C-alpha cells in the first residue's frame, strides 16, 4: 500500500521535483547499489569458482583411481604370468596342476570385482585354461568348451608384444563362439606374453568388465557429477547411460558422438592446453589419459560433467538474502529520495548551509566535515557508530588521526593534489577505529567552494566495506587450502615453488633453499585394513605434526593423497635433513591406534623446478626402497656428476 501511494505521488509531481528526485536518488543510491551488485557478483563468482574447483578435484580423483586400478592389474598380471602354478601347468597340464592354477585365478577374480575372465591362450590362439566371474560367481570352463581365439584382433595384437610387456586392446564387445554376448558386455582386455626359458608359450589374458570399472570409480564421486570415458573419435566407451555406449561398434548408436552432440566441447578437448569447458547448462572437466602407466596404447578422454546451475541450498540462500537486502535498500532509497526532494523543493535556497546539506547527501553513510584548514567541525552519528569516535573527541582535530599507517605519504599527497585539481576524490582507503582496529572504506572527499571561488569546507563521506574485504580474503584462502588437512594445496605449492626457483635463477647468490617430499608409509594398507575414515585421520594427524613441528618460515603443502611437500627457504641441505628427521621421529612417536611412519626425500632447489622436483622424488624413492621410515638426500651436485 505504501509503495502504491508513493507511485501515485510521484505521478503527480511536476517536472522540477522529479528532476530533484532523480538526482538525489542517483547521488545517494549509486554507492549502495554498486556495493550490493559487487557483493552479489563476488558471491556468485565464488560459488561458481568453488563448483569448478570441485569438478577438477573430482576429475583428478577419478584419474588417480584409474591409474591405481591399472597399476594393480598390471602388477597382478605380471605376478600371475610368472607364477609357479602357471609354469607347472605349461610343463605338465595335468588335472592337478590345472585345478591348482584355476584356484589361483579364481582367488584373483574374487579379489578384483572388475576382472570378469582370466585365461591362458597358447601361441596358436587356443584357450588352454579359463576362469570366469559371472555376477560374483566363479565358473571354471571345462576343457571341451575352450575356444579358438586365433582370429580375434586382440590375439593378433598380442603376438606383437615383447617379452614381459603388458598390452591392452581398448574396449569392445564380449564375443563367445563367434557371437556377440547378449546382454551386451563392453570389455577391456589386457595381456602379457608367457615365456619359459626364453621360449614363448602363450599369453595370459585379463578380461575387464567396463561397467564394474566405472562403478568402482563412480562410487566416490558426488552425485551431481557424471563421469564418462570417450575415445579419440568422440564415441562413448563408458557412461551411466548405457544406451549411448560403443557407438563405434553398434550402428544404431553411432549418433552418440561428442563431435556431433557438442562440437565446441570436442574442439576444446582436442586442444592440449585446455582442461575445462563451460556452456550455458553444464561445466565440463576433462583430461586425456592412458589406461595406466603399465599399459601401452588405448588413450582416451576422461570427461566429468556437472550442471552449471547453483543448486546448493546454502549458497542459494546467500544469494537470495543479498537480493532481499538490495530490494529493501532500493525501497528505502526511493523513500529517502522522495523526502529529500520534497524538502529541497520547499526549502530551496542558495545559502552555504543549503549547499553543505546537499553535498552531505552525496551517497555515503558516515560523514566528516572540515573547514578550509582541514580541521574537523562536524561528524554524523553513523560516523560515531562505525569509527567509535565521538564528535567531542574529534572536534578541531585533523583527519590524519584516523590514518592506519597502511598507506604511504605519496598516496596522501596524490589524493590532495587530485582534490585541488578536481575538487573531489574517491577511492578505497584503510583507516583505523578508535580501538585501533582497521576499517576498509570506500571514501569520497568533496571540496565546497565559496562565492569567491575558494575552498570553504571539505566533506568526507564513506561506506564501511570491511566485512566484504574479509569475505574476499577468506574465499581466496579457501581456494588455496586443502580441505581435509588445512595445509596449503598443490596449486598454492606450485606458485610458492615457482617463486623460489625464479629467485634462484635470477639471484643465484642467495642462500640455499630446499624442497622435501614426504609420503606416508603403507598408507594403502591402512586404508584397506581400517577404512578410509581412519586413513583420513592418519593424513590429518601427519599434516598437523608437520605444521606444528616445522619452522615458521617453512611451507607445508599436501600435494597428493598421502604425499606432502615442504619448502625450506634459507636452509642448507644438511640443516634440512636434520629438520626432516626431527619431523619423521615426531610422526613415528605420535600417539595413535596405528603405528605411522613416513619416508622422505630432500634436495636443494636449483633454477629448474622440474629437475629439483625430480631429485626430491628420486630421494623419496630411495627411502622407500631402503626400507622406509627414513630421509634420503639427493644434492644437485650429484645430479651434475651423474650428468
UniProtKB/TrEMBL annotation:
Ranges of residues in domain PAC: 423-477
Top EC group: transferase
Compartment list: Cell inner membrane
TM annotation in the entry: 20-40, 321-345
Keywords: ATP-binding, Kinase, Membrane, Nucleotide-binding, Phosphoprotein, Transferase, Transmembrane, Transmembrane helix, Two-component regulatory system
Cofactor: Mg(2+)
GO biological process entries: cell adhesion involved in single-species biofilm formation; negative regulation of bacterial-type flagellum-dependent cell motility; phosphorelay signal transduction system
UniProt protein name: diguanylate cyclase
Taxonomic path: Bacteria, Pseudomonadati, Pseudomonadota, Gammaproteobacteria, Vibrionales
Amino acid at each position: 500500500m505504501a509503495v502504491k501511494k508513493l507511485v501515485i505521488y510521484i505521478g503527480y509531481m511536476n517536472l522540477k521535483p522529479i528532476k530533484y528526485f532523480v538526482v538525489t536518488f542517483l547521488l545517494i543510491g549509486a554507492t549502495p547499489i554498486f556495493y550490493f551488485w559487487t557483493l552479489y557478483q563476488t558471491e556468485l563468482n565464488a560459488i561458481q569458482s568453488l563448483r569448478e574447483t570441485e569438478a577438477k578435484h573430482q576429475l583428478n580423483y577419478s584419474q588417480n583411481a584409474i591409474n591405481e586400478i591399472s597399476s594393480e592389474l598390471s602388477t597382478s598380471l605380471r605376478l600371475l604370468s610368472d607364477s609357479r602354478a602357471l609354469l607347472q601347468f605349461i610343463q605338465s597340464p595335468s588335472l592337478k596342476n590345472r585345478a591348482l592354477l584355476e584356484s589361483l585365478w579364481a582367488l584373483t577374480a574374487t579379489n578384483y570385482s572388475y576382472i570378469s575372465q582370466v585365461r591362458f591362450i597358447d601361441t596358436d590362439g587356443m584357450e588352454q585354461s579359463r576362469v570366469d566371474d559371472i555376477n560374483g560367481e566363479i565358473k571354471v570352463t571345462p576343457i571341451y568348451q575352450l575356444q579358438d581365439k586365433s582370429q580375434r584382433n586382440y590375439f593378433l595384437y598380442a603376438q606383437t608384444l615383447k617379452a614381459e610387456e603388458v598390452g591392452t586392446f581398448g574396449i569392445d564387445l564380449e564375443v563367445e563362439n563367434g557371437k556377440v554376448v547378449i546382454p551386451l558386455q563392453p570389455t577391456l582386455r589386457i595381456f602379457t606374453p608367457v615365456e619359459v626359458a626364453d621360449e614363448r608359450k602363450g599369453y595370459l589374458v585379463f578380461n575387464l568388465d567396463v561397467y564394474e570399472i566405472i562403478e568402482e570409480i563412480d562410487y566416490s564421486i558426488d552425485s551431481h557429477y557424471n563421469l564418462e570415458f570417450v575415445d579419440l573419435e568422440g564415441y562413448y566407451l563408458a557412461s551411466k547411460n548405457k544406451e549411448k555406449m560403443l557407438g563405434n561398434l553398434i550402428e544404431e548408436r553411432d549418433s552418440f558422438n561428442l563431435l556431433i552432440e557438442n562440437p565446441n566441447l570436442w574442439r576444446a578437448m582436442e586442444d592440449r592446453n585446455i582442461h575445462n569447458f563451460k556452456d550455458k547448462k553444464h561445466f565440463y572437466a576433462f583430461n586425456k589419459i592412458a589406461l595406466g602407466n603399465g599399459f601401452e596404447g588405448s588413450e582416451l578422454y576422461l570427461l566429468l560433467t556437472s550442471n552449471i546451475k547453483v543448486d546448493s541450498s546454502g549458497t542459494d540462500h546467500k544469494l537470495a538474502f543479498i537480493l532481499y537486502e538490495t530490494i529493501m535498500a532500493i525501497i528505502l532509497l526511493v523513500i529517502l529520495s522522495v523526502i529529500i526532494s520534497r524538502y529541497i523543493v520547499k526549502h530551496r535556497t542558495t545559502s552555504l548551509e543549503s549547499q553543505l546539506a546537499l553535498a552531505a547527501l552525496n551517497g555515503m553513510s558516515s560523514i566528516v566535515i572540515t573547514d578550509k584548514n582541514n580541521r574537523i567541525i562536524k561528524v554524523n552519528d553513523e560516523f560515531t557508530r562505525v569509527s567509535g569516535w565521538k564528535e567531542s573527541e574529534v572536534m578541531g582535530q585533523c583527519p590524519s588521526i584516523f590514518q592506519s599507517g597502511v598507506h604511504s605519504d605519496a598516496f596522501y599527497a596524490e589524493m590532495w593534489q587530485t582534490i585541488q585539481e578536481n575538487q573531489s576524490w574517491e577511492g578505497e582507503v584503510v583507516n583505523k577505529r578508535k580501538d585501533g582496529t582497521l576499517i576498509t572504506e570506500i571514501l569520497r572527499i568533496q571540496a565546497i567552494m565559496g562565492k569567491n571561488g575558494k575552498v570553504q569546507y571539505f566533506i568526507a563521506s564513506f561506506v564501511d566495506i570491511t566485512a566484504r574485504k574479509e569475505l574476499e580474503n577468506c574465499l581466496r584462502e579457501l581456494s588455496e587450502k586443502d580441505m581435509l588437512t588445512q595445509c596449503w594445496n598443490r596449486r598454492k605449492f606450485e606458485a610458492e615453488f615457482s617463486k623460489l626457483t625464479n629467485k634462484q635463477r635470477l639471484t643465484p647468490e642467495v642462500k640455499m633453499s630446499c624442497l622435501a617430499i614426504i609420503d606416508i608409509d603403507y598408507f594403502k594398507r591402512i586404508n584397506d585394513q581400517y577404512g578410509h575414515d581412519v586413513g583420513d585421520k592418519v593424513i590429518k594427524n601427519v599434516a598437523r605434526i608437520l605444521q606444528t613441528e616445522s619452522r615458521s618460515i617453512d611451507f607445508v603443502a599436501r600435494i597428493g593423497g598421502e604425499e606432502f611437500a615442504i619448502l625450506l627457504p634459507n636452509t642448507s641441505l644438511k640443516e634440512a635433513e636434520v629438520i626432516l628427521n626431527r619431523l619423521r621421529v615426531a610422526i613415528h612417536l605420535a600417539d595413535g591406534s596405528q603405528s605411522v611412519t613416513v619416508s622422505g626425500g630432500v634436495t636443494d632447489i636449483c633454477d629448474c623446478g622440474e629437475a629439483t622436483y625430480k631429485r626430491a622424488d628420486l630421494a623419496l624413492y630411495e627411502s622407500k626402497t631402503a626400507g622406509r621410515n627414513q630421509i634420503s638426500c639427493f644434492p644437485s651436485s650429484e645430479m651434475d656428476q651423474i650428468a
